[in-house]
Design brief:
The protein is mainly α. The chain contains five helices and no strands.
Amino acid sequence: MLTWSYRTSHQTRSPSLLLGLYCAASPWIVNYTASQPSVATRNLIMGIAIGLLALGFTRAPERMYGLSWAMCALGVWMIVSPWIVGSGPDAGVVWNNIVIGAPAVVLGLVCAGTAAKASPRP
């Protein structure tokens, strides 16, 4: 069971790291730093957080799986935050955050499911 958990860790860490890098760079890629500066700053911070979680999953997967739900929470926040943080976000900003948030939720669920299967039952 531990080898399956470790293999799943390897399958989720690279996409998570790439997702974090894209999230941090997306305000400049999609070019909404001037129109939505608060969303741009938040995407940079959230991208760094997702990247750090991915690095943690890489360095110590057995200890970091408890934070898998944090990846899910970050993904949900990415999806809803343009309306909460931004001021009248356009379609590009909304779709960009959905494209980032949905995979973050899925990757977090995969990691959390792996942690649930790998944890010993009393």
